[in-house]
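Trying the structure run again after the queue cleared.
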Amino acid sequence: MWKKFLPVLSVLLLTGCAGMFTRLTPLQQSRNANNLYPVEVAFNSQQQSLRWETIQPYVIANGEPYPLRPVPLVQNRWEGFVPVPPGANSINYRFKFDYKYNNLGTAPKPSSAVSPIYKLNIVDQ
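Done. Tokens:
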């Protein structure tokens, strides 16, 4: 039985995870007048070939990508805003990080890492 899984396991161990996301956004926020809500994420990776200077982070809400910017003075953290339509009580969103990685013998190659889907609840005060 182990002989069947050994090739798959070795591929998983060699490729590893592109990245790990830590959502730093609260689960709920109070409704505001401009309908823009802050989101924040930490992104870490054990992928040694990842070229950190090429990262282009986004938050995706309602199928639209919104750029994230680095948090000043804090490494590997990004922040941005998601628009929530007036009257909506929640929004689903996810983070996407596009980047390049070094590939032996060729130019750096593009790749990306995508977070799970998160839900932000909007509450009236």
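The domain at 17-123 is CATH 2.60.40.10 (Immunoglobulin-like). Worth checking whether this holds up in the mutant runs.
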